[in-house]
Design a protein that fits this description.
By secondary structure, this protein is mostly helical. It contains twelve helices and no strands.
Length: 230
């Protein structure tokens, strides 16, 4: 039970720290930069679909280059709102994960094996994926042992098929993505307008609770699979 709590707390705490950093920067840009945050969001709204597309391209490139995605997700909530930000981030994850997977399988597989073949996390991932590929894919996304962007390349080096990889890589990140974009939206409304979006605060709380419940469930499932192998 303590392990389950530590994993869920780690995920939520990591997101909260990123939100705090983004919040401080947003406050500084808005209040000490003569309303620059409001100017940026107004510019984005005036650009129509161009700005979201540009942001998604940058996000995809960052994922392929193994740059942590948490910051991108919170910023998406700040600049585009929770609903649009979530959709943009999930779409970016689908594209970025696909590119990383194909690079890892057909271009960089030898390098990945050379670097990680003795890594205990990779060895366990490869072993479990032979028996329970869908379940282990879900486990690795909900309870990340290694960063999301790195895991894309590790999964490519295993025998898992592309379609299950893609589906689990996107679906299992929905609660965390909603949590981070909702937090970004709350920061934006609080910094720019000095108000609290209570509906979005409720969404944030529900997403955090869902993360906790999912982590608890997958941790128990992972323990059962480990016991089967032993």
């Amino acid at each position: 039970m303590s392990s389950e709590k530590s994993h869920s707390k780690k995920i939520i705490l990591h997101g909260a720290v990123i939100m705090a950093v983004v919040g401080i920067l947003s406050f500084a840009v808005e209040h000490y930069g003569e309303g620059h945050l409001s100017a940026i969001t107004a510019w984005i709204e005036a650009r129509g679909n161009y700005a979201p597309l540009l942001f998604m391209v940058i996000n995809v490139v960052g994922m392929v280059l193994v740059i942590p995605q948490t910051l991108f997700t919170v910023v998406a909530g700040v600049l585009f709102g929770a609903v649009k930000g979530t959709a943009m981030c999930l779409a970016s994850m689908a594209v970025g994960s696909s590119i990383s997977f194909f690079l890892g399988r057909f271009v960089l597989r030898g390098r990945v094996f050379k670097k990680f073949r003795h890594d205990p996390n990779f060895m366990k991932m490869e072993m479990l994926s032979r028996k329970h590929p869908i379940k282990v894919l879900a486990l690795s996304r909900i309870v990340p042992v290694v960063p999301y962007s790195v895991a894309n390349y590790l999964w490519a080096a295993t025998g898992v098929r592309f379609l299950p990889f893609l589906i689990m890589s996107v679906v299992c990140l929905i609660p965390e993505t909603v949590f981070l974009t909702a937090g970004g939206h709350l920061l934006s409304s609080g910094v720019r307008m000095g108000t609290v979006d209570w509906e979005m605060l409720a969404v944030l709380a529900v997403a955090a609770a869902l993360i906790y419940l999912l982590v608890r469930a997958v941790q128990r499932s992972l323990e059962q699979d480990s016991n089967e192998i032993k």
